[in-house]
Design brief:
Strand 2, helix 3 and strand 3 form a beta-alpha-beta unit. The chain has three domains: 151 residues, P-loop containing nucleotide triphosphate hydrolases (Rossmann fold, 3-Layer(aba) Sandwich); 67 residues, Helicase, Ruva Protein, domain 3; 57 residues. It has 13 helices and seven strands. The N and C termini lie far apart (56 Å). With 320 residues, it is of the alpha/beta class. Bound molecules: adenosine-5'-triphosphate (ATP). The site of adenosine-5'-triphosphate has 19 residues, from helix 2 and helix 9. One of its GO terms (molecular function) is DNA binding. Keywords: ATP-binding, DNA-binding, Nucleotide-binding, Transcription, Transcription regulation.
């Protein structure tokens, strides 16, 4: 019989996977869950970092203490400092995109981690820090944007979630899992996977990892005609390509100066951001540094143009 601290390797609180790479990761998760020490979870976008953080939290304390999630790219320095220092609490704090933490935020977190070393601090008053990133923090330390002392304090443990393309056979397991979920959600029969789809699942590179796979299955599930899910190139990729082709061929033919200027600026911003993000594999902090802009401002610009930075995670390195 399993105890509450044991881990079901195929499904530790909903985490699906049976590849050796995934199971190794699961073993490590279960080992470190019992500790209160801080952790950094590395992994590509959509690979399951937040889910792993929740698994660590859940396995370590049965979910009895709160799990609070903050994105370092959008959280204000004040909010983070208030959360850490306002009043003592027992919680797990998930800090996503830790590489995006501002200089002041880094100092607050470092101070918090140093204070936590105090032997006088009751165990019931500790916040376990679980940080996640798709960036190479050592490179950011070298580049001078991330404090080395913070990295070393944070990284009592580190876990690297393998990208889906390295998890042999897991895409199929996950696809079946998502089909079951969508069939329950839409009250439709479960679909089987066509051999073409199976081939596609194992050959596709999955730069957006499990999030990309879930979206792909979701869409194909909804448009499937028969009892089989048959798909090749995800339509979102096709739509994106069509959209990009259309935009590339687009030229403004009106005569209004302001409209023409606005259009030219929009096109410039889009292509500039696209090149910039390709060169940093979608890392906004690094992109902001390269472009000489505030990270927050660059993030706003990326949002304004509806650009999905995740699609650049797998792009070849370019000079921008
Ligand atoms: N092993 C898994 N089994 C089932 N679902 C998973 C698994 N890993 C991730 N997912 C699902 O994939 C999606 C992306 O996962 P998650 O948000 O944890 O990724 P992430 O690495 O934190 O993403 P980001 O880098 O964008 O913050 C979520 O919907 C999550 O539920």
């Amino acid at each position: 019989m399993k105890t509450s601290h044991s881990i079901n390797q195929e499904n530790p609180i909903g985490m699906i996977g049976a590849s050796p790479a995934f199971l190794e990761h699961v073993r490590l998760l279960s080992k470190i869950s019992a500790s209160k020490a801080s952790i950094v979870i590395f992994g590509e976008t959509g690979s399951g970092k937040e889910m792993a953080a929740r698994a660590i939290h859940h396995l370590g304390n049965n979910g009895n203490i709160p799990f609070v999630s903050m994105n370092c790219g959008t959280i204000s320095e004040e909010k983070l400092a208030n959360y850490l220092f306002d009043k003592p609490k027992n919680a797990a704090l998930f800090l996503d995109e830790i590489e995006a933490l501002s200089t002041k935020g880094q100092i607050s977190l470092l101070r918090y981690l140093q204070d936590q070393q105090s032997p006088d601090l009751p165990k019931s008053e500790t916040i376990r820090i679980i940080a996640a990133t798709s960036a190479d923090l050592l490179k950011l330390v070298e580049a001078g944007t991330f404090r080395p002392d913070l990295l070393f304090r944070l990284q009592t443990f580190s876990v690297e979630i393998p990208p889906l393309r390295e998890r042999h056979g897991d895409a199929e397991l996950l696809a079946k899992h998502f089909i079951k979920q969508y069939s329950a959600k839409y009250d439709k029969p479960i679909l089987s996977l066509h051999p073409d789809t199976l081939r596609y699942l194992s050959r596709h590179n999955w730069p957006g990892n499990i999030r990309e796979l879930a979206n792909f299955i979701h869409r194909e599930f909804l448009i499937a005609d028969g009892p089989t899910l048959r798909a090749g190139l995800p339509a979102n990729q096709m739509n994106r390509r069509k959209g990009e082709d259309r935009r590339a061929g687009e030229s403004y033919t009106g005569h209004d100066f302001n409209e023409a200027k606005a259009k030219a600026i929009e096109n410039f911003e889009k292509s500039f951001l696209s090149r910039l993000l390709s060169g940093t594999h979608g890392n906004v902090t690094l992109a902001a540094k390269k472009a000489g802009k505030e990270r927050r401002a660059l993030g706003k610009l990326i949002k304004k143009h509806g650009i999905d930075k995740r699609k650049y995670a797998d792009s070849p390195q370019q000079n921008t």
